[in-house]
């Protein structure tokens, strides 16, 4: 009886393997092939530094307080950003900071690779983003 059950299970397993053997794979061989990210994907933030007026609306609206922003007043009385850090160990990619930004200079990009060796490395400055990431 037991041998009969085992052989039935074995044959069923072979049948499932046979069905799926010649089908197209549904997974991507990541990281060789990047996954498709839709246009409104909420990935790592991007900041157009020149357009930021340092109003700190994004910092105030963040429900987990993971934004740290500071600036100084420049010669033309316009504020200049000195610090714009996001702690990605806390950020939950809710998009509220993006919605609160008056000049729309803060957006969420398609990047999602934020793996790090420790929590401190998950704190990122948007001032040092490579220019190609801003496009
Ligand atoms: S996406 Fe949400 S949690 Fe992350 S920084 Fe913006 S407001 Fe804060
Ligand atoms: S809300 Fe926009 S303009 Fe204001 S500090 Fe944040 S990124 Fe800069």
Automatic annotation (TrEMBL):
<feature type="domain" description="4Fe-4S ferredoxin-type">
    <location>
        <begin position="82"/>
        <end position="111"/>
    </location>
</feature>
<keyword id="KW-1003">Cell membrane</keyword>
<feature type="binding site">
    <location>
        <position position="52"/>
    </location>
    <ligand>
        <name>[4Fe-4S] cluster 1</name>
    </ligand>
</feature>
<feature type="binding site">
    <location>
        <position position="101"/>
    </location>
    <ligand>
        <name>[4Fe-4S] cluster 1</name>
    </ligand>
</feature>
<keyword id="KW-0411">Iron-sulfur</keyword>
<keyword id="KW-0874">Quinone</keyword>
<comment type="subunit">
    <text>NDH-1 is composed of 14 different subunits. Subunits NuoA, H, J, K, L, M, N constitute the membrane sector of the complex.</text>
</comment>
<keyword id="KW-0004">4Fe-4S</keyword>
<protein>
    <recommendedName>
        <fullName>NADH-quinone oxidoreductase subunit I</fullName>
        <ecNumber>7.1.1.-</ecNumber>
    </recommendedName>
</protein>
<feature type="binding site">
    <location>
        <position position="58"/>
    </location>
    <ligand>
        <name>[4Fe-4S] cluster 1</name>
    </ligand>
</feature>
<dbReference type="Pfam" id="PF12838">
    <property type="entry name" value="Fer4_7"/>
</dbReference>
<keyword id="KW-0479">Metal-binding</keyword>
<comment type="function">
    <text>NDH-1 shuttles electrons from NADH, via FMN and iron-sulfur (Fe-S) centers, to quinones in the respiratory chain. The immediate electron acceptor for the enzyme in this species is believed to be ubiquinone. Couples the redox reaction to proton translocation (for every two electrons transferred, four hydrogen ions are translocated across the cytoplasmic membrane), and thus conserves the redox energy in a proton gradient.</text>
</comment>
<feature type="binding site">
    <location>
        <position position="97"/>
    </location>
    <ligand>
        <name>[4Fe-4S] cluster 2</name>
    </ligand>
</feature>
<keyword id="KW-0830">Ubiquinone</keyword>
<feature type="binding site">
    <location>
        <position position="91"/>
    </location>
    <ligand>
        <name>[4Fe-4S] cluster 2</name>
    </ligand>
</feature>
<dbReference type="InterPro" id="IPR010226">
    <property type="entry name" value="NADH_quinone_OxRdtase_chainI"/>
</dbReference>
<feature type="binding site">
    <location>
        <position position="94"/>
    </location>
    <ligand>
        <name>[4Fe-4S] cluster 2</name>
    </ligand>
</feature>
<keyword id="KW-1278">Translocase</keyword>
<dbReference type="InterPro" id="IPR017900">
    <property type="entry name" value="4Fe4S_Fe_S_CS"/>
</dbReference>
<keyword id="KW-0472">Membrane</keyword>
<feature type="binding site">
    <location>
        <position position="62"/>
    </location>
    <ligand>
        <name>[4Fe-4S] cluster 2</name>
    </ligand>
</feature>
<keyword id="KW-0520">NAD</keyword>
<feature type="binding site">
    <location>
        <position position="55"/>
    </location>
    <ligand>
        <name>[4Fe-4S] cluster 1</name>
    </ligand>
</feature>
<comment type="similarity">
    <text>Belongs to the complex I 23 kDa subunit family.</text>
</comment>
<feature type="domain" description="4Fe-4S ferredoxin-type">
    <location>
        <begin position="43"/>
        <end position="72"/>
    </location>
</feature>
<dbReference type="InterPro" id="IPR017896">
    <property type="entry name" value="4Fe4S_Fe-S-bd"/>
</dbReference>
<keyword id="KW-0677">Repeat</keyword>
<keyword id="KW-0408">Iron</keyword>
């Amino acid at each position: 009886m037991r041998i009969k059950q085992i052989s039935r299970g074995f044959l069923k397993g072979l049948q499932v393997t046979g069905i799926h053997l010649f089908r197209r794979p549904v997974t991507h061989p990541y990281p060789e092939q990047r996954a498709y990210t839709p246009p409104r994907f909420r990935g790592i933030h991007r900041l157009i530094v020149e357009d930021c007026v340092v109003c700190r609306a994004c910092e105030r609206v963040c429900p987990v307080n993971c934004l740290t922003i500071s600036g100084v007043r420049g010669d033309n009385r316009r504020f200049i950003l000195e610090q714009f850090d996001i702690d990605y160990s806390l950020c939950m990619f809710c998009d509220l900071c993006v919605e609160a930004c008056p000049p729309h200079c803060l957006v969420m990009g398609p990047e999602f690779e934020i793996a790090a060796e420790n929590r401190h490395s998950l704190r990122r400055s948007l001032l040092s983003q490579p220019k190609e990431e801003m496009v």
